[in-house]
Amino acid sequence: MFIDSHCHLDRLKLEEFDNNLDNVVNAALENNVNTLLCVSVTLEEFPAMAEKTAKYDNVWLTCGAHPLNQDDEINPEQLQELATNPRVVAIGETGLDYFYAPETKQVQLDSFRKHVRVANQLNKPLIIHTRDAQEDTLAILREEHAENVGGILHCFTESWEMAEQAIAMGFYISFSGIVTFKNASALREVAKKVPADRFLIETDAPYLAPVPHRGKQNQPAYVVEVAKHLASIRGTSVAEIAKQSTDNFHRLFAQTKA
Ligand SMILES: [Zn+2]
Ligand SMILES: [Zn+2]
Fold first, then answer.
1. Residue 190 and residue 193: Cα distance in Å, rounded?
2. Which of 11, 12, 154, 155 has the fewest CB within 10 Å, making it most exposed?
3. pLDDT at 107 over 80
4. Which residues contact 170 (CB under 8 A, 6 or more apart)?
5. How many DSSP H helices and E strands does the chain contain?
6. Nearest ligand to the C-alpha atom of residue 7
């Protein structure tokens, strides 16, 4: 079985699924993708996301505000309150993205720090989005003692040095469809080195569909393609990748284990 450790079910265009989210979840199940982590990107939209996914026992949630959705300052009390939903297993996605929005750096830093504090208060792991902000990301994780809760560096595209430092703080490294892209050879080198007990797989659906589905809308069922590519990169079987990544997910989020 496979786990999609990062998807945005509330952002899928459901037209191609007969306007029914059941069809997305069922397509995943048919491909042996049995557990999904549905990731929040704004606090305002969290209640609707929770409602849309409430009937699926195999869908877990996170709560947080994406670094690129930071028009207003985050309210940590609101985050803390929303994150007490029993299906919320992690805080995020949060982090820093200086690639797309260097101009909002200050707001991102402030929001990221507040997310780490709430994660520590609620004792829940973090889902981290980090792009072109290695030093600041690691500095905040250290300053705010993120090692107490750990978490995931999701859709990882940064250096091995960064991965290594995050792993030392108890974090897991999650690979998306980007590892299947032609120009991602540096990332494949990183994917080769991450210890077997520290990697996860994800789609980040509806974004970043893996080869051979590039150009289409991504969906959790396609996480199998990420697993196949990782297996060939790491010189192991798809079954082994499935088992390792599933074990890793359940170690990080004990309550998701059936
Ligand atoms: Zn992200
Ligand atoms: Zn995401």
1. 5
2. 11
3. yes
4. 147, 149, 150, 151
5. 9, 8
6. 2
- Calculate how far, in angstroms, residue 100's C-alpha sits from the geometric centre of ligand 2: 14
Q: Domains (ranges, CATH) in the chain?
A: 2-256 (3.20.20.140)
Ligand nearest to the CA of 202: 2
Whether the pTM exceeds 0.90: the reply is: yes
Q: How far apart are CA 138 and CA 191, in angstroms?
A: 19
Q: How far apart, in whole angstroms, are the C-alpha atoms of residue 78 and residue 91?
A: 12
Convert the pLDDT of each residue in 109-157 to its tens digit.
999 999 999 999 999 999 999 999 999 999 999 999 999 999 999 999 9
**Exposed / middle / buried, residue 80 (Cβ in 10 Å: 0-12, 13-18, 19+):** middle
Nearest bound ligand to the CA of residue 207:
2
Residue 39 to residue 204: CA distance in whole angstroms: 9
How many CA atoms lie within 13 Å of 225's alpha carbon, on the beta-carbon side? Answer: 21
Neighbours of ion ligand 1 (CB under 5 A): 129
Q: Chain-centre distance of CA 70, in angstroms?
A: 18
Q: Nearest 5 degrees, angle CA 61-CA 63-CA 69?
A: 125
How many Cβ atoms are within 10 Å of 66's Cβ, its own excluded?
20
Instruction: Give the distance from CA 129 to its chain's centroid.
Output: 8
